[in-house]
Specification:
434 Repressor (Amino-terminal Domain), 3-stranded antiparallel beta sheet, 13 helices, elongated, alpha+beta
Length: 282
């Protein structure tokens, strides 16, 4: 699969059309006119400092280029549009490309939205997001809901089930996804996993945990587990995350943490005495 790089020349052409003079844009970005000339021509690969100048200028000018491209991709009638956040950049895609202790084991993880993908990598300066199209026709697709099976699987793969990892109910859940080319499941970020950890430790019931997790704003993730699944993907574009955009994601992350903490407190109170603790289930 071909992995594209940033379309900086096309993106510079966009901002020049919006803003006018290339010379004034060069001054505003603090770049020599010769560097901007090469950006326009696309004949020299710019360094990270130049890319940061370009995309920061676009973002500070009020243009939300990445989110808008996401919508354009969807409007073009492509199959399914998905996004992958990468801390260091993709060289290739493989079914064993992630850590084994991710939500559902090793695989290529993609989210339904640009926002969800970026929210996992914005803390790293070199991070970026890749857009993919996918055709799931003919694949073995297993979809998990926000329920006990999903929660047990995430706790298992993240190494938090301890003595319960070989329980028949857990093994049944593992068998459900064993032959999947693609698994579709709710996204569990580290804040949500904290809630699952409380359940795994026996501090809250399954009902308290699931009511807290059910309102995730991150949507669903698509985990491509086999080469057959990966063959259904096509990488469309790489999106640059400039500093100001990453800072905005950081602010959202703080608010999301407050939201999860508040939802947990409310769920613990509202569903006190309801549901079962992990030792009652397993």
């Amino acid at each position: 699969m071909k992995i594209p790089d940033y379309e900086y020349s096309k993106d510079y052409a966009f901002i020049r059309e919006m803003q006018g003079s290339g010379l004034s844009i060069a001054r505003a970005m603090g770049l020599p006119s010769s560097t901007v000339f090469h950006l326009e021509k696309g004949d020299v690969t710019p360094n990270l400092s130049t890319l940061e100048s370009l995309y920061s200028y676009i973002y500070e000018s009020g243009y939300r280029l990445n989110q808008s491209k996401e919508e354009i991709f969807r409007e073009q009638g492509r199959e399914l549009i998905l996004f992958h956040g990468s801390k260091w950049g993709l060289k290739k895609v493989a079914e064993d490309g992630s850590r084994q202790n991710c939500d559902l084991g090793s695989g290529l993880y993609l989210g339904e939205s640009y926002h969800a993908a970026a929210s996992f990598v914005y803390e790293i300066p070199s991070s970026s997001v890749y857009a993919f199209s996918a055709d799931l026709t003919g694949l073995n697709v297993v979809e998990l809901n926000c329920d006990l099976t999903w929660m047990l699987l995430v706790c298992l793969f993240r190494g938090n089930l301890g003595q319960y990892q070989n329980h028949p109910l857990v093994l049944e859940a593992v068998a459900k996804i064993k032959e999947a080319d693609v698994i579709i499941a709710p996204i569990a970020d580290n804040r949500m996993y904290y809630v699952m950890g409380l359940f795994a430790k026996g501090e809250i019931t399954d009902e308290q945990a699931l009511h807290c997790l059910a309102a995730s704003r991150l949507g669903k993730q698509y985990v491509f587990k086999t080469q057959k699944g990966l063959n259904a993907l096509r990488c469309l574009e790489r999106f640059y995350l400039c500093l100001n955009e990453r800072n905005d994601f950081a602010k959202e992350g703080v608010e999301h943490t407050k939201y999860i903490e508040t939802k947990l407190s409310l769920a613990k109170r509202e569903y006190r005495g309801k549901g079962r603790f992990i030792d009652e289930i397993l």
